[in-house]
Amino acid sequence: MNSKKAKKKNHVSFRMNMLFFVVFLLFSLLILRLGVIQIVYGEDAKREIERTEDVTVSTSVPRGKIYDRNYNLVVDNEPRRAITYMIPNKFDQKETLKVAERLAQLIDKDTEKITERDKVDFWIMKNPKEALARVTKEEQEKLKGKDDELYKLQRERVTEQDLASLTADDLEVLAIYRELTSGYAMTQQMIKNEDVSLEEFARVSENLPMLPGIDTTTDWERKYAYDETLRSILGGVTDGLPLEKLDYYMSRGYSRNDRVGKSYIELQYEDVLRGQKEKVKNVTRQGKVLETKVLSEGERGKDLILTLNMDLQKEVDKILEEEIRKTKARGGTGLLDRAFVVLMDPRTGEILTMSGKQYAYDEEEKRYKFVDFAAGNFNTSYVVGSSVKGATILTGYMTGVNHPGKTMVDEPLHIKGTPTKSSHFNRSGYVSINDYMALVRSSNVYMYKTAIAIGEGQYRRGQSLAINKEKAFRVMREHFSQFGLGIRTGIDLPGEQIGFRGDIEQANAGNVLDFAIGQYDSYTPLQMAQYVSTIANGGYRVQPHVVKEIRDPADGKEPVGPVAKEVEPKVLNRVNASEEWVKRVQRGFRGVFTEPRGTGRSFAGEPYSPAGKTGTAETVDRGRKVWNLSLVAYAPYENPEIAMAVVVPSAYYVGSTPNNVNMDIGKRVLRAYFDLKSGNKEEE
């Protein structure tokens, strides 16, 4: 009995010893493992916890300024207070929400951009347990591992009543939270840069330690010294990179929040105006910014000196508005709603004025008013009529179908299947006329017969016109293009149109004749200015441009900085005409304004010695037959320094009393130019 007890006791002791041994062994292994971690990997773990990262980012600088040719400031940068957020590498929803809640107590934030989806997501974030309770246990089990589908189901079960429970304070927090989460890691996100009060700016500045990532800084807004004058040409800037060009700009070092030029001058000269960004190194630890160091100072963009004279521009704008009102009041068409003027130096291509005014209905103000439509000078086109006859005469010379001094009979042309075609001054008779008087009196028939000869045709009264219309169109268009008609002028602005080219296949023989007097193809006012400049300067087609110089930013001692680049005149081509031929057309243009029977004889008494050509084109506008009026001119005749194109679409109805609004505008504009030049402009 005792022997059995002893054996049992020994057996229990053995098992206890084995248990203690196993426990000891496990503890030993645990201690060994802890030692290895502490001794071998401890320093690495510590370094990982304390590891910082250097992230270099670029911050925007003000855009370059824009001046007119007399160094009057046209577009400036107006500083404005701004609140920004540097988005961390690692997104933490709770921390971000805390920042939004703290910031909402310090600033007022507009909530207009909040969407219905934003509200739903925000309600779920604020009420996670209740949102999850809307999904049954069975549905949760079924969607296990499918978080996106589960969240979608939660969204669907958020009610209008739930959203209505969001207070005004909640929505303000949401508006801020929306901005905090809409950018990309380590980019600066604009939280508020409009109407930031001094009090808001101060409150946020004082509480920056409690607002990780938030900073107070200065943003810039474009300021236009001349209000709406030339706004359609100056262009505008975006509030961030446009989505359709996102990859393009990102590949060139832009940030998503950068402003870029979105139209015209701002767009065309984006590379010049954008400036050199300031490079900043952010020292981060575990996604949080610890320190910021400036690596290189930024420099605002270079400045543009325009060829435009803003004083003259304002005066021409005023003239257009007054003449449009006057013409409408004395019987102009109800369709007359715009007019254009381009003033260009025919020697250099510098645009001194590009004026366009449109009388349009303003939906906000519920009234008609004049708006800037300067861009219409190169992105809209019109049939212009007889003002292109200088190109027709020179085309006749260049193709050999006529020559200086050649006479033709001006007579009504009776072509089978086509209405009678005649000149305005001769509806029924027979008048012998040469090329000079054809320009002076604006003979349509002289131009018709020139076009017939170019198309190897022959006119026989009452019969169909036998003509090679394809050749006539091709040859005349090729020669017109030498003057800039029907092709791009090359102006340094985006969006230039070439005008409308009538379909040759659909054209009849009569349309060939219409082309010769400017009543088939359409041209832009800028093309007309380049055309008359080419005649004025002796046959050289000069590229028009609106930027005269590019200058480095001023150092504060001078109003403008040193010249970085000067835009030199560029001759695109010379017309294939002799000097004698060009001078012959110049004399014809002078006769238009000085001869007793000249169509522009009202210019005869002007002291600046002008030359030019008038134009009247019958066309259709919104179902009504109307006359477009045009005028091209240059002055002084002996040594041209200014060339002008005037276009007034739908000036009066066919059959109504004609008006001379094109010449009224032209005379006032040229007087304004020479008065400003000599300083004789009367005080208003």
TrEMBL record:
Membrane topology of this protein: Single-pass membrane protein
InterPro entries linked: Beta-lactam/transpept (IPR050515), Beta-lactam/transpept-like (IPR012338), PBP_dimer (IPR005311), PBP_dimer_sf (IPR036138), PCN-bd_Tpept (IPR001460)
Domain Penicillin-binding protein transpeptidase: start-end pairs: 340-657
Location(s), subcellular: Cell membrane; Membrane
Principal EC category: hydrolase
A Gene Ontology BP annotation from the UniProt entry: cell division
UniProt protein name: serine-type D-Ala-D-Ala carboxypeptidase
Record organism: Siminovitchia thermophila
Lineage per the UniProt record: Bacteria, Bacillati, Bacillota, Bacilli, Bacillales
